[in-house]
Amino acid sequence: MFEVYDLTKVYPGGQGIQGLNLTVHSGEVAALLGPNGAGKTTALQAMAGWLTADRGEARWNGASVAERPDLTKLHMGLMIGEPAPYPYFTGSDYLKLYSKLYSGIDEARIQQTLELVGMSGHQQIKIKKYSTGMKQRIELASALLHRPKLLMLDEPFSGMDIEGRREMTAILRGLVTETGMSVVISSHQVYEIEDWITHAYIIYEGKHVDTASVAQIRESFASVEDYYLNCTAKERGGVA
Ligand SMILES: Nc1ncnc2c1ncn2[C@@H]1O[C@H](COP(=O)(O)OP(=O)(O)OP(=O)(O)O)[C@@H](O)[C@H]1O
To answer: Which InterPro entries does the record cross-reference, listed alphabetically (predicted)?
Structure first.
């Protein structure tokens, strides 16, 4: 189980994330939803231990992620930041480089993972020739290489076409169902992910302002997007 208590990281300019509380059990998909600049990436970076929190903490099965960076490496797959940042590597080289971080990742695992994300046929091409969507696929492969128990994804579909997004969503949904992997995903395009998330966390102007399970949301709203718009309208002080 992954738990986050009162996680707060405020940059010198005053922006960042404050008071994030989140719990993800095996097989759950938590979405951080918020407008541009709301603090979603900061929240993910702080959850993964990349940023030192000012207050609060993230815990993996009760152990502090800040105190135990090995927990992030062993149990989490991260897709945060620029995908596949080595232009002169081939996709295959990139995954081989990643595999060195772990013991027991062999060529068969690399090939399985390339197959999973639909990149087998492109693995010998240099990353500089990849489209944005292809870079995202290879980055997803690197995050999945060690078969993490928790996947953290920051806007993973932003450069993908509709077909690619559907395909990736189906792959991730399959992994969640078959392996019990949990996911924390950020997006400002709610409709892209609303059919496979289990919980929504609304982030607005650097604050965690609301949380609901999708089951709860469906009792009162036609869609997660409607729930999201209701929350953000309230924050703006408008009529929801
Ligand atoms: N290193 C930094 N130093 C100072 N301010 C920062 C830093 N990184 C981000 N910010 C600011 O913090 C706020 C939150 O940024 P963040 O990237 O976390 O938001 P986001 O919700 O992920 O946005 P987007 O949807 O556009 O990716 C923004 O106003 C951003 O300009």
So the answer is: AAA+_ATPase, ABC_transporter-like_ATP-bd, ABC_Transporter_VariousFunc, P-loop_NTPase
